[in-house]
């Protein structure tokens, strides 16, 4: 047997093994190719559905990422007023009862040493204002939220207001001291200053008119009482009250005569005078005073001016008229006193006009107006502008009002001179 014959079976075995390996390899390749085609088709079918979870996962990843404590997410779907915090601001100086930072999405308690910048505040404001603008957002309360957002932006972008807002955050007591509380008081509505000024001016004119009327009535009532009750100089009477009483008595007597004549003319036979109960002197005096009072009132009311400014009120007593005259009076007084000062500097003697003016200023307008011409002339000669002379003259007038005689007045003066001006004035008046 040759060598080739002996190797033939071995060759067939190897060929068969090679073919088997090739078949197995091809079969595996075919299976793997089919599985790859099936996986690609499955991935193609689920492509659209798998894209959305991918985007959701990105958003979830973003949400899970740590945010800056200063800024909330800009794309928040809503901004509820419940998340705006609280602040003590009853007078709405800042953002009312809400926290200005919270309104714009910032948290004062968490930003630490890095407060929001002006750029961050502006960015947050723009986003929230677009979201809650009444023209774009028709939700209920959108307008109120938009106004609150604008107010918060106004406060936080003003450096002075923002510092004040931060300062009063934990100091409500100091806020109350400066701005008060709306619970205790509120500002009244603004009034027109022009109308208020006109009303006050009218009231001032009415006041000056009735002040002059009250001034006149006071003197008139005093004069009527003095005339009716027949007061003496010591009791407060005056020459005018005596004159009015005399006129009233004359008119009363005339009226009584007329009544008697009228009664006699009406009856043919004279009637006997009816005797009534006898009146006491006090009752007679009271009856006479009742009859004199209306006559005295009429006589006093006929007097328009008592002097010294005590006159019936007229249009001249209105404040507006007085204000027009003030420049004239002020100029006249300044001119007179200027001339007086120049004459004193030149050491000239007082003339008659100066003596009269100085005396009038010393005794007062009332005493000057009540005095007669002779009394005024006497006052001028006494040089009452000198303080010692004025004191002596007033004491003399007091003794005259007390009803002391001339001899008693002289006696009192001598005793005062001997006593060096001392002594009790009341004791002097009771000297015998």
Question: What oligomeric assembly is this protein in?
Answer: single chain
Shape: elongated
Secondary-structure content class: mainly alpha
**What count of helical segments does DSSP give?**
17
**Sequence stretches where pLDDT stays below 50 over 5 or more residues:** 1-7, 38-81
Mean residue pLDDT: 77
CA radius of gyration: 58 Å
Helix content: 55-70%
> How would you characterize the largest beta sheet?
none
Give the topology string: H per helix, E per strand: HHHHHHHHHHHHHHHHH
Give a verbal description of the structure.
This protein is mostly helical and 432 residues long. 66% of the residues lie in helices and 0% in strands. The chain is built from 17 helices and no strands. Helix 8 crosses helix 9 and helix 9 packs across helix 10. The chain is elongated and about 190 Å long.
Ordered list of secondary-structure elements with their pairings:
Blueprint: H1 3-45, H2 47-64, H3 100-103, H4 118-131, H5 142-156, H6 159-167, H7 172-179, H8 193-228, H9 239-266, H10 281-301, H11 319-345, H12 352-363, H13 365-370, H14 373-381, H15 387-401, H16 406-418, H17 425-429
Helix pairs in contact: 4-5, 8-9, 8-10, 9-10
What's the gist of this structure?
The protein has 432 residues and is mostly helical. It has 17 helices and no strands.
